[in-house]
Amino acid sequence: MQPRVQTGLDRLLADQKRLEALSGARVGLLANPTSVTSTLEHAIDALQKRGVELVRLFGPEHGVRAEAQDMEAVEESSDPISGIPTVSLYGSTYDSLRPTQDQLADLDIVLADIQDIGARYYTYAYTVGLMMEACGKAGVEVWVLDRPNPINGEAVEGNIVRDEARSFVGMQPLAVRHGMTLGELAHFFNRFCGWECDLEVVEMRGWHREMWYDDTGLPWVMPSPNMPTLDTATVYPGQCLLEGTNASEARGTTRPFELFGAPWVDAVELREQLRGFDLPGCRFRLASFRPMFQKHANTTCSGLQIHVTNRETFESITTSYAIMSAMLQQSDEFAWRTEAYEFVDEQLAIDLLLGDPKLREALEAGEDPVEVARTHDPAVEEFAERRRKCLLYE
């Protein structure tokens, strides 16, 4: 049975005119394990079979084969399977996030084919944007092979990141849940953000904005090691905020971001606090878990699991504001992360994730988290207008 949606990669492989344009060109490929056809053939193999000369691979955070954990520097010089020379765009320094001009000098075209998640913290979009900027300076074309926004392309939630809170989890003025595909984001970056290049987006066929990933008929491939399912992606726009705290977002378990807690959490009380907020589209189950790595590794955490009962009404960001607020009120042991985060050590991680320190201050002051999450941000209106101009699928 054919999937309802044809990705940019599949469209490229079926487009003789585009393949002829690639014939004889020196091509770079920005890819990871999600760079597959609808039959799960990797783009590296599929392109080479069609005569495309792949001169160099570029790997985003986690690497071309995604064996590295989050914020783990990737040092790779060749792909272990294909043997193609490889450049990591997520090393140990901020400068490693963009390719050098030397790494682009022998290329004519860079193809970018990676699955985004739909939240502004997810670093892949910025890796594509920085590639666009570097290719623009080098005179190299960029073709973005588009893929679905897995949590649909209609819903937009959250505030816009402030200039003073820019980082690799918020490099451009996007809403937290931006409601765009990677191809649409590429147009946004090219048009409004100064990441300019000779850009072509190979659009999908059959994708509609209201679709969630499981509506597409496409196989789910983990976009990163802690994004195992669409359920994870659904709660991620809010639950990623827990990375900015000392509570566990359950990395090191099989249900990251859905589970959350800490050794000091009173789970029964926390559930009652959250029930009091009357949060739509979800329920909370008492849970204990023991992360195998990262925060509270090998220590039993008490907490909850989010069960989304209606993903159309569920508000991930509002829900996670309520979770952080409840933890703040419950225990003096709750704290904001103070260690360096995504190459930044002079600002709190939570401020980088929230994109506005005033939101953290409001939670600390005990303001209603639901109201804080829904605070009107005038910058959202400008984002909405810019976003509208970049949408490819109506």
The biggest beta sheet is recorded as: 6 strands, parallel
| Helix-strand pattern | HHEHEEHEHEEEHEHEHEEHHHHH
Under CATH, the topology of the largest domain can be stated as Rossmann fold
Low-confidence segments, given as residue ranges, are none
With strands numbered from the N-terminus, the spatial order across the biggest sheet is 3-2-1-4-5-8
Q: What percentage of residues falls in helices of 4 or more residues?
A: 25-40%
Total DSSP E strands = 11
Write down the domain tally. Answer: 2
Average per-residue pLDDT, rounded, comes to 96
Strand content: 5-15%
State the separation between the terminal residues, measured CA to CA.
25 Å
Task: Name the structural class.
Answer: alpha/beta
Supply the CATH superfamily name of the largest domain: Uncharacterised protein PF07075, DUF1343
GO molecular function, one term: peptidoglycan beta-N-acetylmuramidase activity
Organism: Persicimonas caeni
Domain Peptidoglycan beta-N-acetylmuramidase NamZ N-terminal: 27-230
Protein name: DUF1343 domain-containing protein
